[in-house]
Amino acid sequence: MLVELHCHSNYSERIKVKVEGINSPAEIMKHAKRLGIGAVAITDHDVFKAHKVVGASAKKYGVLHIPSEEVDTSEGHVLAIGISEWIKPHMDVRETIDQIHSQGAIAIAAHPFDINDDGIKEGARFCDAMEIFNCLNLDRIANIKGRKFAQKNEIPGVAGSDAHMLDMMGCGLNQIDADDVDGIVDALKKGKAGIATSKYIPISVIREWSLLRLKASYDQIVDYIENNYSWPKKPVSKKLLSLVNHNSGSVENIFKLITYISLATAVSYSAIRSNNIFE
Question: In terms of Cα–Cα distance, which of 68, 64, 83, 260 is closest to 176?
Fold first, then answer.
């Protein structure tokens, strides 16, 4: 079956921009059915709430839900796939993986070499598998480095959509010959998952997601700016943030420009950091 191993619901939240995932677990299951996805791991950041509420909708749409979590370790993010209980964040990688294994689950290194330094990098060697294609690694180089690292260290590789809204789902899917959670976990342990789909999330979708997040988190972001930024960063940030509440074509063009500048900067920065990646 086709399996989505990295997906976020509206239970996922962060610090600077509170809202991260846009859709409910029920909406995710319904959309998975539309896409022909047989199993979905909702990997919310440091919370295990989706598993408590998703059962009825998973059954309704005939989609298998894999109880999971994206855990913030002290070194970076690890996907806990097939867990039965919440894994607390901020432990070191080895302790986190031990906790995951104690539940009969597996650890997958999420975007290990991403340019935001949210991955565990070489710590991926301690995991059962690692993402060698993350659909949000738009710089491309992070995925190339991940693939080379996995090959060198003989670590099973998987794809992850890292979906934060419905339009991102299905970009990174895995083909796994199993029909229940235990079977999926076992196949991943044995490196028997094959990457079925690996495509980057379109810039237009990234821009839409960013705007939805900013709008939904507006008041919280203003408070963060007030309490953490000083002049001139504070007034400039507040002015730019205020643009999300306008719908004119000129504002849309501004956000398009910001998006492409950000992408160009990310690619350049990643290339500079990994200047020997193609050797």
Answer: 64
User: Which residue has 């109880």 as its token pair?
Assistant: 67
| Domains of the chain by residue range | 2-201, 204-273
Give the model's confidence band at 86: pLDDT under 50 very low, under 70 low, under 90 confident, else very high.
very high
Evaluate the omega torsion of the peptide bond into residue 232 and state whether it is cis, within 30 degrees of 0. Answer: yes
Strand (E) or helix (H) holding 174: strand 172-175
Q: Is the pLDDT of residue 75 over 70?
A: yes
Average pLDDT, the chain: 91
The pLDDT tens digits of the residues spanning 91-100 come to 999 999 999 9
CATH code of the domain made up of 2-201: 3.20.20.140
Q: Is the dihedral of CA 113, 161, 213, 76 positive or negative?
A: negative
Write the single-letter amino acid at 185.
V
Query: Alpha-carbon distance 127 to 37, whole Å?
Result: 25
Residues 6+ apart with CB under 8 A from 269: 115, 139
Does position 3 have pLDDT exceeding 90, yes or no?
yes
Which residue type occupies 109?
A
How far apart, in whole angstroms, are the C-alpha atoms of residue 141 and residue 278? 9
Residue 169's pLDDT is 98
pLDDT in tens, 250-270: 556 666 656 656 655 655 555
Structure tokens given for 22: 């846009």
Length in residues, the chain: 279
Cα 56 off chain centre by: 24
Identify the three-state secondary structure at position 154: coil
User: Which DSSP helix (H) or strand (E) runs through 64?
Assistant: strand 64-65
Say what angle helices 203-216 and 249-273 make with each other, to 10 degrees.
110
Between residues 12 and 221, the one the model is more confident about: 12
Rounded to whole angstroms, the Cα distance separating 242 from 215 reads: 9
